Amino acid sequence: MSDIRIATADDQILLDKEAKYCSYGDTVHYIEPPRIFSRCEGSYVWDTEDQAYLDLQMWYSAVNFGYANPRLNNALKQQIDTLPQIASQYLHKGKIELSEMIAVDAKNKFGLDGRVHFNVGGSQSIEDSLKVVRNATNGKSLMFAFEGGYHGRTLGASSITSSYRYRRRYGHFGERAQFIPFPYHFRGPKGMTKEEYGSHCVQQFARLFETEYNGVWDPKVGQSEYAAFYVEPIQGTGGYVIPPMNFYRELKHVLDQHGILMVSDEIQMGFYRTGKLWSIEHFDVQPDVIVFGKALTNGLNPLGGIWAREELINPKIFPPGSTHSTFASNPLGTAVGLEMFKMTNEVDYGAMVMAKGKYFLEGLQDLQKRFPIIGDVDGLGLALRCEICGPDGFTPDKATLDYMVEEGMKGDMVVDGQKLGLILDVGGYYKNVITLAPSLEISYPEIDLGLKLLEQLLVRATTR
Predict the structure, then answer these.
(1) pTM for this entry
(2) Does 354 score more than 90 pLDDT?
């Protein structure tokens, strides 16, 4: 293996300028020196030395349909030449038609009427959902959320994100969350099946409502102090943890009994990442609110939003001006979003993603058999996880995964005569999980290539 990579002279000039002029608050450097990239296409990005890297995290699942997707890029270009911008208080065709697509789809799937509300990204849309929820529950500001859950880093979103470090220096601003254990079966109690553990977690949650002395329920008036439960159906930053299929159905039953809304955060897992438009569809429940972002525009434009049930968001209860953003429902973003829906409606994306995910997961399972440091692999569609552990196959090993990430970014691995790097994302409660979110357009040969590159990194990690 190679030594530590040194930045080129041109890159070092830029890095010196970054160190002087750029806030470090909006980024994280996972390797030193950080790479500077110059172009991208499909499943690959290239640095300033024209070294190619296979990307298996695709901008935290924002680029589901591949870098520089020609069809989606062209939709953006065409919109630039017609109606590139207009103030959000004025209407344009794209906003209306995209809202219709999402709302009609929800009606067909969940049997619920609802409306769509746009904003400029995931965290901002979480903020809007908090307004909808608080407004509909007479101002209740307490929420349930999961241990391991991530909903963003704005003030409201960080208050329902389980990592204290994201809000430690800023305090709370309105919302507060009680964090409930997620059914993380690999690290759960032994002796239970995955489904039994899911039921166990629901039963533990339901105990909070047994008497008034558990602190969340007044049985005399039948009211909870909590407004909503924010869920990521598949945990994202928490390590792509996939719950048992019975879990949300049982959880929703408890919530409905006590008048608590379910908000499904689909920002990272939406738009076919798991083989369905929304990951909550796998679990046979009706969400009250869906929050989306990222891949709606394939990362080409900051646009996110929410869908909410008619009873929560109709103009009488959530009137004009309830929230506002200058760039909400901007025509460039809605044009790409519309084209994304048209594109995914022409091909059975669900079947395609599930088939590719099954193939990729089988490859990971084969690596798990050959490398004891892989404690767990799992996947749903093309949301896949590979948990790196110590020799016992269970003790979290963050240091080894950090090493693998750094080695992958050296760009010095060779497969079939081609020199490549590999971009991996790190997640999990102990930061020891490779969270794999490849392009949904990834080819089977590219999946094979990714598995070969992962194998090389595992060999380096176990023989260093």
Answers:
(1) 0.97
(2) yes
